[in-house]
Amino acid sequence: MSALKIKGLSLVRADGVTLVDNVDLALAPGETLGIVGESGSGKSLTLRAILGILPAGITATGEIACTARTAMVFQEPATALNPTMRAGDLVARVWRRHHPGRSKADALTAATELFEQVGIDRAADRLRAWPHELSGGMRQRVMIAAALAAEPEVLLCDEPTTALDVRVQAQILDLLRDLVARRSMAMIFVSHDLAVVASVSERLLVMRRGEVVETGVLTEVLAAPAHEYTAELLAANLGRRLKSESRESRESRESSESLGSVTR
Amino acid sequence: MKGPKLWIGAGVVGLYVLAAILAPWIAPHDPLAQDVVAALQGPSAAHLLGTDELGRDQLSRILMAARIDLPVAALATLLPCLLGTALGVICGYFGGWFDAIVMRISDLLQAFPMYILMIVLVFSLGPGVRSLLISFTAVGWVVYARLVRAEVLRIRQTEYVTAAITAGFGAPRVIVRHVLPNTLRQTLIYLTSDLVFAVTALAAFSFLGFGIQQPTPEWGSMIAAAQPYITTQALLTVVPGLVITVLALGFALLGDALQERKRA
Ligand SMILES: Nc1ncnc2c1ncn2[C@@H]1O[C@H](COP(=O)(O)OP(=O)(O)OP(=O)(O)O)[C@@H](O)[C@H]1O
Ligand SMILES: [Mg+2]
After folding, report:
1. What positions does the domain ABC transporter occupy (chain A) (predicted)?
2. Beta pairing, strands A186-191 & A154-158
3. Probe ligand 1: pick from A17, A23, A43, max atoms within 8 Å of CB?
4. Does A130 lie in the same domain as A174?
5. What is the Cα–Cα distance from A78 to A96, expressed in whole angstroms?
6. How far, in Å, CA of B93 to CA of B85, rounded?
7. Which atom of ligand 1 lies at the shortest distance from residue A207's CA?
8. Is B170 part of the contact surface with chain A (CB cutoff 8 Å)?
9. Which chain B residues contact residue A93 at CB under 8 A?
C-alpha cells in the first residue's frame, strides 16, 4: 500500500523539450522521502504535477496515483503568504475549508492550536499579524500551520528552508521532523542541498536534468552512492556538517523507532 | 503616512466633501432664488461673492454645486473602475477567448482620443447626468481593465495563490480573497488621478452645455453662464474656475502621494 505512487511521469514543454523524464516514485504512509538535485532538475515541477498545478503549457504523461490528502509548503516565505490576509485568518480559512459545517470560533481555536504546534509563541496575538510583520522563519511556520490545517497525509515541502538563515533553517527542519513523527504524516522534502535533505529523510531520490539517477534508503545511498552524480553531490556537501547532521538524524530516528516498538 | 502632499491633498478634498455635506446649512441664501433687481452685483456683506445675472447668491450656488459636482465626478470614476476591474479580473484570471475579445475591444477604444470618444457619445445620447455617466463608463473602463488584468496576471503566479488553490479553494474564493485585494492598491492610485480628469471633464462638458443643466448649480455651467460678463464681473467666472482647479489639484496631490508611498 502506498499513499502516493508515480509511474513513468514525463513532463513536456510546448516546444517539445522534456523537463521531467520517466520518473518513478512511491511513498508509503508515514514515510519521508527526500528529493535532491541541482537547480532546474525538475524537482518543483514533479511536486506540482502531484498537486495537479502544472504551469500552463506543460503537459504530463504517465500515472500519478494519489489517494492521500496532500498539502504543500513553498520555498519563498516572502511570497507564499497573501500580504492582504492576516496570518490567523489564512490558517482558519484553510481549516474551515477542510472541516465544513464548523463555526468560525472553532476555526479560530484550531488556528491558535496549530500556531502553537508549529512553535509560534504568543499564538493568540500572532493570529492577527499581517505577513509583513513576521520574520521569514515565522512566515514559514505560518505556511506550515496552514498546510497542517488541511490535515494532510502527505506533506510536500519545496525547499522550505532555502530562503532562511542557517539557525532558523535548523529550527524549521527540527519542527518538520517532529511534526512528521507526531502526526505519522508522510513527507516529500525537496532541496538542492543534500545535507538538508539528509537531515529529514528516510529515503533519498536523486534527480538530474529531469531524470532520477538514484534512489534508495538514505543511509545506504550516502554510504555507497551508486551513481557518480550522487557521489559528486556528496563530495560537494562533505564536510563536518553533513556527517554530523545525518548521524544525528539517524540516531534520533533510531531512538524514536525503538520507542515505537516498545509501545507497540 | 507622512509628507505634505498627502496631508494637503487629503485636507483639500476633505474640505470640499465637508462643504458639500454642510452646504444646505451654511449656504447663506437659496441658490435658486432670483432677484433680478440685484443682478450682477459685486461682493457685499449680504452676498460675499456677489450675485449672478439672475441675482442669485453666488456663494450659495458655489457651495450647493459641490453637492452635484463631487458625487457625479465620484460616480464617473467609480463606475468605469468597477466595470474595468470586473473585466480585468476575469480576463487576467481565466484568459481564453473572453480575454481575447475584451482586449480587442479595448485596443479599439484606445485607438481613439478619449475626449473625442466621450464627446461623440454624449452628443448622441443627449445632455444630462445619465448620458455623462454612461459615456464616462463606456470609455473609462479600458484603463482599469488593463491595469487590473496585468496585476492579476502577476498575482496569479505568486505562491500564495498557488497555495490557496492547492488548499482546495475554488476560483471565486481565490479571486475575492487572494487576488482582488492585492490589486486594489494599484487601482486606488489610478482612481485618484482619474478623479482629476473626472472633475475637469465634468465641468468642461457642463460648460459646453452637455452636462448638468441650468438652473441646477454646477461649476462648469456657472462659468458658461457668466461668460458674457467676464469684463464687468470677472469674479463670476474666476471663482468657479478656481474652485474646480483647487479640487483637481487636491486629487492630483493625493494621487502623487499614494504613488510615492507605493514606491517607498
Ligand atoms: N512554467 C514553466 N514553463 C516552462 N519551463 C519551465 C516552467 N517552470 C519550470 N520550467 C523548466 O523546467 C525545468 C525544471 O524546473 P523546476 O522548477 O522543476 O526545477 P527545480 O529542480 O525545482 O529547480 P530549483 O532548484 O531551481 O527550484 C527548468 O529547466 C525550468 O526552466
Ligand atoms: Mg524548485
Report:
1. 4-234
2. parallel
3. A43
4. no
5. 24
6. 12
7. 21
8. no
9. 169, 177
